[in-house]
Amino acid sequence: MSGQGEQITYAAAGVDVEAGDRAVELMKADVRRATRPEVLGGLGGFAGMFDASALTRFRRPVLASSTDGVGTKVAIAQALDRHDTIGFDLVGMVVDDIVVCGAEPLFMTDYIACGKVVPERIAAIVGGIARACQQAGVALVGGETAEHPGLLGPDEYDVAGAATGVVEYADVLGPGRVAVGDVVLALESSGLHSNGYSLVRRIVSAAGWELDRDVPEFGRTLGEELLTPTRVYAADLLALIRADGVDVHSLSHVTGGGLAANLARVLPDTVLARVDRSTWTPPPVFTTLQQLGNVPRDDIERTLNMGVGFVAVLPADSVDSASAVLAERGIRSWAIGEVQSLEGASLAPGVEVVRGAKGVDGGSVQVVGDHPA
């Protein structure tokens, strides 16, 4: 059957192939800088290629992979029409999960779904991804931008990514290395990172706060604070793992679920980690949001990182050296707790004990005390 009337083209359906090509041209320079010597080929291939012969230096190489997005934080970027930082959030959420097991992230791919390809916007997003990959020492070997008119609005988009890393089997970090007497070392976050934005957006909406509102406690606008990019720890943590005088037993990325639940995932089921709130003061963004929304403490601590973006579990005699390594790399760290034997542990009465999380039958964590006033 032949149709009559107006011709229907791909462009008329809402997909602009030429805009996609223009976006690729705009992002090329940034992507070229996010590379490693093992990368084969260039931008535009059907698949990213990575020379795996580099793995022959390992006796028993273990590949580690991770995939993630940035959640509803993209709504803040869209509302502010600022898209050059969201890539840092994506890279941090993906590659820093890989480092938890001690693996070095090698390469990453990204995926952007949007309602309409605006070349400058796509280039800004990918530019942020590329710069964060460069900072982390990860190659950006490929990606995809898909235009979905009718499914997403013209100014709407979402981002996701996946990465692969490698670690020597004998060097895998995790619960099996943790021992009674180990110290829990906190690494400072850059802010909210990329978790809990559904709660955050609900709080500021209920309060009637606009993103351009100046907030004295933040020293900048609400939107600027909320769009602060996630700290990318990968290169810093690899330096910590490899440093002389430091014996890292396990690492935990404090993302969805909060500090206690994510720490419990990297502990054996025979121990309890007691974390003391009195060892740090959460940055103003956390306390302001909690007070603004009258959010119960246990709820906000299960949702936001409260100023702790990562934790390392390591022997007490490694703490000073570890803190020095991190300080040299611009990351403040401090001891927030210790690991005890679960059997016979002295538990604080009436305080929740978190046992494992996200399907992991891990250790136990009890968070005690109060943050300094």
From TrEMBL:
Matching SUPFAM superfamilies: PurM C-terminal domain-like, PurM N-terminal domain-like
The record's listing under Pfam families reads:
AIRS, AIRS_C
| Domain named PurM-like N-terminal: residues | 57-167
Q: Quote the EC number.
A: 6.3.3.1
Residue ranges of every copy of the PurM-like C-terminal domain listed in the record? 180-341
For this chain, one GO molecular function annotation is:
phosphoribosylformylglycinamidine cyclo-ligase activity
Its localization reads: Cytoplasm
Arranged from A to Z, the UniProt key words for this protein are: ATP-binding, Cytoplasm, Ligase, Nucleotide-binding, Purine biosynthesis
Provide GO CC annotations from the record.
Answer: cytosol
Q: Which reaction does it catalyse?
A: 2-formamido-N(1)-(5-O-phospho-beta-D-ribosyl)acetamidine + ATP = 5-amino-1-(5-phospho-beta-D-ribosyl)imidazole + ADP + phosphate + H(+)
On the tree of life, the source organism's domain of life is: Bacteria
Record InterPro entries:
PurM-like_C_dom (IPR010918), PurM-like_C_sf (IPR036676), PurM-like_N (IPR016188), PurM-like_N_sf (IPR036921), PurM_cligase (IPR004733)
Any GO BP annotation? adenine biosynthetic process
Q: In which pathway does it act?
A: Purine metabolism; IMP biosynthesis via de novo pathway; 5-amino-1-(5-phospho-D-ribosyl)imidazole from N(2)-formyl-N(1)-(5-phospho-D-ribosyl)glycinamide: step 2/2
Indicate whether Ligase appears among the record's keywords: yes
User: What's the chief localization of this chain?
Assistant: cytoplasm
Coiled coil where?
none
Similarity comment text for this entry: Belongs to the AIR synthase family.
The protein's name is Phosphoribosylformylglycinamidine cyclo-ligase
Organism of this sequence:
Knoellia aerolata DSM 18566
